[in-house]
Amino acid sequence: MTRTLEILDRLVAFPTVSRDSNLELIDWVQALLADAGFEVTRIWSPDRTKAGLFARIGPNVDGGICLSAHTDVVPVDGQLWTRPPFELTDDGDRVIGRGTTDMKGFLASALATAERAGQGKLSFPLSLSISYDEEIGCVGIQQMMPELRNLIGTPRLVIVGEPTSMQVATGHKGKSALNVTCHGQAGHSALAPDFVNAIHVAAGFVTKIQGLQDRLKSGAVDKDYRIPYSTVHIGKISGGTALNIVPSETQVALEFRHLAETPAREIESEIRKIADDVSQAYPCAPKVDVDVVNSYPGLDIEATKPIVTWASDIAGTPKTTKVSFGTEAGFFSQLGLDTVVLGPGDMATDGHKPDEGLAKSELISCDRMMDQICSSLRG
Ligand SMILES: [Zn+2]
């Protein structure tokens, strides 16, 4: 077993589902990094049930490499696993276990590299940013950012190791989740026309959102994405209490995913305008409320940048890609740091699935890339 597999075996055994604490894993990882000679800072979640880490080794100068990973995994509830999800199973050319692909495989490779990095002199620093609560909408990294931005310095590249089959991903869309509350007036259904029906208000809102989707489709386009335009989507509607009561409130949960060239605030203000238009049709009811529940920025780095070409070289995959899923990369890129998404495994075949696994060959490629990162830091 390689050191990377040994570490992955330990990491998978911590059942770090986002709803639960990750502190046991963090204790273990913090000790490993401290033993390897890293300066480690623990960054607590506001309620101190979880934590992230920032760790650095080497001189305090610009031009290092930062490796970024999240520690949480999605639940296994309701999924049919044929292997124990929180135990690493060796299955010939694959290993199986929750988080192997998303994204403890990359973290294991990064930690094995961290141990090796400390064994020789570095001219540039190697740093690790290790987060929590990524799977619930990049919540942890947002909470860590005020401290992280003071620690991270100016690495020449941040590698967010989400699974891309070791291909450099230069972009992904940003995303915002919104909760919209449509108000009406409760009353006897026999007298329905006397009252504002909150479900009718919501219906008007939903219809106009469909119109917004049509406009987005004919707006900005990036052909590197399977869905090449920004999208808006309604995922849940809840309203009303009983058939004989005019509903007084309806909640509409929606999200939009935007291309880098269409800022989130642009689509958000369109949605607020729609809410205002709908409200005007119902002057007797309170205005439609729009609350942004969560959002994360997109990523868009020029594929022709020399640092991206270098990343492709060390990854051994010349062609760059863009990914459909969101990552923490946009937060690093907002700090002005060159950032790519690059890691072992395939999100489409393994991410969030029962019997999630990872090809050993992907881990070997990742380890090989890490070796090249190490030599570049010694140079
Ligand atoms: Zn992930």
* Unique bound compounds: zinc ion
Name the beta content range.
15-25%
Shape annotation: elongated
- Radius of gyration over alpha carbons? 23 Å
How many alpha or pi helices? 10
CATH fold title of the largest domain? Aminopeptidase
Span between termini: 30 Å
What percent of the residues sit in helical stretches (DSSP H or I)? Answer: 25-40%
Q: Mind describing the biggest β-sheet?
A: 6 strands, mixed
The average pLDDT is 96
Uncertain segments of ≥5 residues (pLDDT<50)? none
Number of structurally distinct domains = 2
Architecture of the largest domain in CATH?
3-Layer(aba) Sandwich
Structural class: alpha+beta
Name the CATH superfamily classification of the largest domain.
Zn peptidases
Helix and strand element order: HHEEEEEHEHEEEEHEEEHEEHEHEHEH
CATH C-level name of the largest domain: Alpha Beta
Give the strand order of the largest sheet, numbering strands 1, 2, ... along the chain: 1-2-6-3-7-17
What is the number of beta strands?
A: 18
EC number: 3.5.1.16
Enzyme class: hydrolase
Protein name: Acetylornithine deacetylase
Family: Belongs to the peptidase M20A family. ArgE subfamily.
